[in-house]
UniProtKB/TrEMBL annotation:
Pfam families (UniProt xref): FMN_red
Listed cofactors: FMN
Organism this protein belongs to: Solimonas fluminis
The keyword Transport is annotated on this UniProt entry: no
Record protein name field: FMN reductase
One cellular component term from this protein's GO annotations in UniProt: cytosol
Domain NADPH-dependent FMN reductase-like: from-to ranges: 6-141
A single GO molecular function term of this UniProt record: FMN binding
Assigned keywords, A-Z: Flavoprotein, FMN
């Protein structure tokens, strides 16, 4: 039987009117063409919060723990990644360990790549493994039609297929490794 993997699709922006919905919807449609993945949406705007507005860590941790791999859909804000994404990453630790993370980024001139490079540093600290393959959209407001369709999809679809194939490889390899011996037992 073909292996199935739970893919945590993480939203980077919580801004009202965010383009993150458009980009994440497109990414989800791409993932759905790959039967190995089942999508679990992890959206900081829709997660449970306590009376002070802080993320409920007892809600976040189990969601991260269920996933075998992550796809982070993030914009760039002032050469960095959005604060709500950092809050999500900081809300748990062990559930991220020895799992692969890929990125779909977007923004203005940089296509969000500076945000991605910063996120790689954060994921190292969480013992997660970030992938080389990254899909990046520059001038994001020009890329999609009002209906949410990518205006020039060929290159993006090709890159996304390679990204997802590699993510599947990492998801399987790291799940096998975790099952053989949890990372905490290494030292
Ligand atoms: C406060 C702010 C800062 C931004 N800084 C950058 C930036 O440094 N580099 C970039 O390429 N785009 C930048 N942008 C453009 C955003 O990436 C773009 O507006 C994107 O749509 C934001 O994501 P969202 O619509 O999902 O919230 C910035 C936008 C805002 C609102």
């Amino acid at each position: 039987m073909d292996e199935k993997f739970r893919l945590g699709l993480i939203y980077g922006s919580t801004r009202p009117g965010r383009l993150c919905d458009t980009v994440a919807n497109w990414a989800m449609a791409q993932v759905r063409r790959h039967p190995a993945f089942e999508i679990e949406v992890i959206d900081p705007a829709r997660l449970r919060r306590d009376a002070d507005g802080r993320l409920d860590e007892t809600d976040v941790g189990p969601r991260i723990a269920l996933a075998d791999a992550f796809l982070v859909v993030t914009p760039e804000y002032n050469h960095g990644y959005p604060a709500p994404l950092k809050e999500l990453l900081d809300a748990s630790y062990e559930p991220w360990q020895a799992k692969p993370v890929a990125f779909v980024s977007y923004g203005g001139a940089s296509g969000g790549l500076r945000a991605v490079e910063q996120l790689r540093q954060v994921f190292v600290e969480l013992d997660a493994v970030t992938l080389r393959e990254t899909l990046s959209f520059t001038e994001i407001w020009e890329q999609f039609s009002a209906a949410g369709d990518l205006r020039s999809p060929e290159r993006a679809v090709r890159r996304m297929d390679k990204l997802l194939a590699r993510l599947q490889w990492w998801a399987g390899s790291l799940r096998d490794a975790r099952n053989r011996r949890p990372l905490q037992q290494a030292a």
